[in-house]
Specification:
Shape of chain A: elongated
Number of strands of chain A: 26
Number of domains of chain B: 2
Number of helices of chain A: 6
Strand content of chain B: under 5%
Number of strands of chain B: 1
Helix content of chain A: 10-25%
Oligomer: heterodimer
Helix content of chain B: 55-70%
Distance between the termini of chain A: 55 Å
């Protein structure tokens, strides 16, 4: 078999694969949602990907009249087993200083908040107070932190990680995934800690607050996630925790902690699939997301389908997806949703649920053109990807990859 | 504001989807993967528009190599009782299934090297950039991947050509 023949085989294998017609619409809608999420997380466009971007925001700062917020990282004692190693602390601070942009509005000298020995060398978290700056949303930016690593593999090599802002009520985090998160070249924790399973290992730093952690959850009768927390001791100024597959949640001082290297979580969230069957129902699930919990990248997309029942009531059917758990909700009468349970199976290509009072069956699939029938009826073709079907529907067939999938509706 | 983004999606999404399809072995997964990558590019368009295709390719490869691991068949099941219709056994489908099965046997980076080199017709240097490794590694990966593909693809694909199946 020649190279040309291999090339030909690959082309033939993909000849029928074409992009969906609505891909641009989906991408644009999803992209806008990501922008909104980034803005809400990064506070009016504050970038955390590099010193230059941070400096650009900080240059415009005011700060007159704002009291410097208290912070254990800036004001408390250094923690960790290397906290008494003055040579290490001096080296860490010097490295931090040399990595700072010139135009930061600093206040006082930097200090090491946390220093520990790891398999590859020493790791320090260095904090620098900045002139407080009101961000206009009730929060105040007041400092920056940066991890500094000292590699001791025969020689001493100092490296500095990414500069991160300190913002009241938001940052910094005190929990980081050793393996990083997809798409984020944060620290080289993966190499530094030499963990066997870095993608499942979490580093939690002691910043003076009591820490609780949960690596499993249940869903209560209302459809909310209930995490099983336990106290996390930090004997050496930090702890490493190997998590399970259900995700994890960290609380420090009674508040949820967003993982430090999970600033932009949008890469882990599948785009919402929406179907509009009429009406203008804008009821949304509120309080059912867990914004500070961490979940692996989702395989499944959440769905939101809205429409009007034959007797004139608006409805919304929506799923939430976390760590492979798909929760199904329905708005029909009143402002509160009804939790319908965890969706059995692991389907992402179609969703079906029966409305009460013989109002029909809500169905949606990822692709257009499905057909359905009642027990004694003929097949009815629907050219769209969603519909409110008659309550007597017993079977639906819809496109699923190159096949036609069959969904049997229980009576 | 995002000048050129719509045009990029319209003109290049099918080509990228085909790459994603061979990388993941599954149409749904490939579409999801591409959508994720394009959404990410939408957000970062200003920074990636100089060479969006290279960015997209690299992102697809990175994400796909984290997904395929050990996946033989997509374990999709329905919300209720659900049967999958019989597959279409046309020649094109047979070739596709054989190719996917053969690619599935390759380690992820060998698979990516072969797909980018022979489906996308990329020069070695661009494949190396997409996979973030040296050209020598790409040559080695491509050669090994081809050798294994030939062993599997040769008889199956060409028996189909001759109408033996």
């Amino acid at each position: 078999m020649t190279d040309l023949e291999v090339r030909d085989a690959l082309h033939r294998a993909t000849a029928e694969v074409t992009a969906p017609a609505d891909l641009l619409d989906r991408v644009t809608a999803g992209g806008r949602r990501r922008v909104v999420r980034r803005r809400s997380l990064l506070t009016a466009g504050l970038a955390v990907v590099g010193a230059g971007a941070t400096a650009a925001v900080l240059r415009g700062g005011g700060g007159q009249g704002l009291a410097p917020p208290a912070s254990d990282l800036l004001d408390g004692p250094a923690r960790g087993d290397l906290a008494g190693d003055s040579g290490f602390l001096t080296g860490a601070v010097a490295t931090f200083r040399s990595s700072l942009p010139d135009d930061l509005a600093t206040m006082g000298p930097p200090r090491v908040a946390w220093a520990v020995s790891a398999p590859a060398g020493g790791l320090a978290l260095v904090a620098q107070r900045l002139r407080p700056r009101d961000l206009g949303d009730g929060s105040v930016e007041f400092g920056v932190i940066r991890f500094v690593e000292m590699w001791s593999n025969g020689t001493r090599i100092w490296t500095a990680g990414r500069l991160e802002p300190m913002i009241t009520g938001r940052y910094p985090s005190n929990a980081y995934l050793v393996g990083g998160v997809p798409g984020d070249a944060f620290l080289r924790f993966r190499d530094f800690f030499r963990d066997a399973r870095p993608e499942r290992t979490l580093v939690v730093l002691d910043d003076g607050r009591p820490v609780r952690i949960a690596t499993s959850f249940t869903v209560d009768a209302s459809g909310r996630l209930v995490w099983q927390y336990r106290d996390l001791p930090l004997p050496d100024g930090f702890a490493r925790v190997v998590r399970g597959q259900a995700g994890l949640s960290v609380r420090a001082g009674g508040r949820g902690v967003v993982l430090g290297n999970d600033i932009d979580a949008s890469g882990r969230t599948k785009p919402l699939i929406e179907a509009d069957l009429g009406g203008a129902d804008d009821r949304r699930l509120r309080g059912y997301d867990d914004e500070t919990a961490y979940f692996d990248a989702s395989v499944f997309s959440p769905w939101r389908i809205r429409g009007v029942t034959p007797d004139g009531r608006s409805f919304v059917v929506q799923t939430l997806v976390e760590a492979g758990t798909i929760r199904l909700f329905r708005f029909l009468d009143g402002p509160e949703p009804t939790y319908l349970g965890v969706v059995p199976g692991r389907s992402q290509s179609a969703l079906a649920t029966r409305l009460p009072d013989e109002q029909g069956i809500v169905f949606a699939s990822k692709r257009s053109r499905f057909r359905h029938r009642s027990a004694r009826g003929d097949w009815v073709l629907n050219p769209d990807n969603a519909g409110l079907l008659p309550p007597g529907t017993v079977e639906i067939r819809y496109p699923d990859g190159t096949n036609e999938a069959v969904l049997t509706i229980p009576a | 504001m995002r000048t050129g983004f719509d045009e990029f999606v319209r003109t290049r999404s099918t080509g990228l989807l085909r790459v994603a399809f061979l990388l993941t072995g599954d149409r749904h997964t490939a579409e999801d993967l591409l959508q994720e990558v394009l959404e990410q590019m939408y957000v970062r368009w200003r920074g990636v528009r100089g060479n969006p295709e290279a960015y997209a390719r690299r992102a697809l490869v990175n994400r796909a190599t984290n997904r395929w691991r050990g996946r033989r068949r997509r374990p999709e099941t329905p919300l209720a009782h659900h049967d999958v219709a019989q597959p279409d056994h046309s020649d094109g489908v047979i070739v596709r299934d054989v190719v996917l099965e053969a690619l599935r046997e390759l380690p992820p980076r060998q698979r990516a090297a072969v797909v980018l080199r022979y489906l996308d017709d990329l020069p070695i240097a661009e494949v190396a950039a997409a996979l973030d490794c040296s050209e020598g590694v790409i040559k080695s990966n491509t050669s090994r991947g081809l050798e294994r593909l030939r062993a599997v693809l040769g008889p199956a694909v060409f028996s189909t050509d001759r109408g033996d199946r």
